Each structure stands twice: as structure tokens, then as C-alpha cells.
């Protein structure tokens, strides 16, 4: 067991939960690279009306053989289909998946940029990493939260500003008394990057 888990009071239970979560992650139909293949096909269909293996390879700047393998895997899972002329189309399942991911991407970017005030470039990177992984339930909750925080209510704006003020002078009380860390200092594990400028709430 790792040093991090040994120091955690719920290490045993958390480890079991971690293993179950990892199994679910591994069972995810779309990996990060597969998502890029799917979006490449979607974009090509939008831009030029057709998509072939070579077109996807050129768009992603990868070898044709890699493109062929990636697209074949997506076709086997029902996201894509190829006609007798080797043109690739999105299946209903593929179209629905694309729409869901686009929705989650918009939600995540709004959350990172508008609520947490993460710089646009970093928000784009972080969104790209997880847009295909979060559940629809989580996406819906985030959307509701964004709407709530964007109401313009004076109390909501005050709480958000208090959060940013707190973040700027946040210090860890120590792992022995901290109710969040529970044995391991999370602030040390995820150090704040000083170059990320946080703006005040308008």
C-alpha cells in the first residue's frame, strides 16, 4: 500500500472504492484518444461533408495505420460505420455521444472560467482531459450550480468573492485537526500555481 494510503484513516475502504472506480473507468467505451477520433470524424463531416481514414489521419497528424485502427475500434463499438466506398459516418449512437460530450465541454469550460476563474488556456486543457469522462448526472449538477452562481444575486456574489479572498490567504491548520485532509495534507499534494491570476467578482 502506498505511503499516501497508509496515512489515511479510511485507507482500506477507500482502496476498495478506488479499485471499483478504476474498473468502471477501464470499462469506459471512450478513451481520450478515441474521443479525438470521434470528434475528427464529426468535424470533417461538418467541414467537407465526408470523412475517410486518410482525412482523419491528416486532421490528427497521425499515421494512416493508427487512424485505421482507432476508427475500426469505434466502428466495432457502434459509434461509426463505413460504407462500401470507405466513407465514414457517425451512427445514431455516435451522434448522441458527440452531442453529450459537447454539452459537457461547454458546462465544464463555463465552470472553470466563469466560476473558478481559471485562465482560458488552462480551462481548455482541463476540460479536454475530462469532458468524455464525467457522467450526465454530474454535468447536470454542474449546470445547475453555474446557473445558480450566475443569477447576479448579491449574496451569491458575496460568497464567491469571499471564496476568492479565502483562497488567497488559505493556510492548512495541520493534518491532525483538518477535517478535509483526514491524515494527508491535500494542499501539499495540489500546490497552488502562483501564476494563475484570480480576478475579483464583478
Q: Would you give an account of this structure?
A:
The protein has ten helices and two strands. The chain has helices spanning 3-6, 11-26, 32-48, 53-60, 64-76, 92-115, 120-130, 136-149, 154-168, 186-189, and strands spanning 80-82, 88-90. The termini are far apart. The model is unreliable at 1-12 and 194-201 (pLDDT under 50). A hairpin with a 5-residue loop joins strand 1 and strand 2. Helix 3 (32-48) crosses helix 5 (64-76) and helix 4 packs across helix 5 (64-76). Among the domains are: 32-90, Orthogonal Bundle (Arc Repressor Mutant, subunit A), CATH 1.10.10.10; 155-202, no CATH class. It is 62% helix and 3% strand. The protein has a two-stranded antiparallel ribbon with strand order 1-2. The protein is an all-alpha fold. 13% of the residues are buried.
Write the layout of secondary structure elements.
Elements lengths: L2 H4 L4 H16 L5 H17 L4 H8 L3 H13 L3 E3 L5 E3 L1 H24 L4 H11 L5 H14 L4 H15 L17 H4 L13
Antiparallel strand pairs: 1-2
Amino acid at each position: 500500500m502506498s505511503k499516501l494510503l497508509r496515512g489515511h484513516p479510511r485507507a482500506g475502504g477507500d482502496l476498495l472504492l478506488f479499485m471499483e472506480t478504476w474498473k468502471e473507468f477501464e470499462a469506459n467505451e471512450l478513451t481520450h484518444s478515441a474521443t479525438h477520433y470521434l470528434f475528427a470524424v464529426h468535424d470533417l463531416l461538418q467541414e467537407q461533408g465526408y470523412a475517410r481514414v486518410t482525412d482523419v489521419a491528416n486532421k490528427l497528424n497521425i499515421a494512416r495505420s493508427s487512424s485505421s485502427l482507432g476508427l475500426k475500434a469505434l466502428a466495432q463499438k457502434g459509434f461509426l460505420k463505413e460504407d462500401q466506398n470507405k466513407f465514414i459516418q457517425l451512427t445514431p449512437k455516435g451522434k448522441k455521444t458527440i452531442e453529450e460530450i459537447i454539452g459537457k465541454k461547454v458546462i465544464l469550460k463555463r465552470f472553470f472560467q466563469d466560476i473558478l476563474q481559471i485562465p482560458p488556456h488552462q480551462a481548455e486543457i482541463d476540460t479536454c482531459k475530462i469532458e468524455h469522462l464525467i457522467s450526465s448526472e454530474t454535468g447536470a449538477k454542474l449546470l445547475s450550480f453555474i446557473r445558480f452562481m450566475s443569477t447576479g444575486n448579491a449574496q451569491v456574489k458575496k460568497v464567491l468573492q469571499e471564496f476568492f479572498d479565502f483562497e488567497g490567504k488559505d493556510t492548512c491548520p495541520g493534518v491532525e485537526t483538518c477535517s478535509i485532509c483526514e491524515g494527508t495534507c491535500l494542499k501539499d499534494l495540489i500546490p497552488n500555481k502562483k501564476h494563475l491570476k484570480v480576478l475579483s467578482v464583478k
